[in-house]
Write a structure and sequence with these properties.
Layout: H1 20-104, H2 108-135, H3 144-161, H4 167-174
Helix pairs in contact: 1-2
């Protein structure tokens, strides 16, 4: 058998003596392992930050979509109200023109019928407003209204038995 150098192969039962070269190699391996561990920890941390940032972007996108939906809904409601107001105005103008043509034609009966229709629509509008006022709970800042509630109920019972065209005066007295 060929004798080997004492630095590479241990002899029977004896360990070889560490050299400076072995110490340097061990230090280099330890540094490399330490750098690899730090790199792995930094990589995991960067991945975690990426996930957090992606989640934040997703949350912002969802909130923007919801906000856009609310804005579109508000615009649709506004356009609906504008459209209905224009339609009501057109109907009022049409009835007014019709009333004027009937007036010019000296048809007193048709004219009075149109005037009664206008009064009836006005009365129903006022009645709706009154019902909405009565249905709404009294505000906390107006304790006076509690004292007026029996008057409102009395006005309703009196209102049903009185001429309907006197509603303007009754509503003005009841409303605050």
């Amino acid at each position: 058998m060929v004798p080997s150098s004492p630095s590479t192969v241990p002899t029977s039962g004896h360990t070889r003596k560490p050299t400076i070269r072995d110490a340097r190699m061990t230090e280099q391996l330890e540094r490399k392992q330490h750098i690899d561990r730090e790199h792995c920890v930094k990589h995991k941390h960067i991945e975690l930050l990426g996930v957090i940032c992606a989640h934040g972007r997703d949350v912002l996108a969802v909130n923007r979509a919801a906000q856009d939906w609310v804005i579109r809904l508000g615009q649709a409601v506004l356009s609906f109200h504008a459209y209905t107001e224009k339609e009501e105005q057109k109907q009022i103008e049409r009835i007014s023109k019709e009333r004027l043509t009937v007036f010019k034609a000296d048809d007193e009966e048709a004219y009075m019928k149109l005037i009664d229709t206008v009064k009836d629509t006005h009365i129903t509008h006022l009645l709706r407003r009154m019902c909405l006022l009565d249905a709404a709970p009294p505000p906390q800042s107006y304790p006076v209204r509690k004292h007026r509630e029996p008057e409102i109920e009395h006005t309703h019972s009196r209102f049903l038995s009185v001429d309907l065209y006197n509603v303007d005066y009754v509503v003005c007295v009841v409303s605050m």
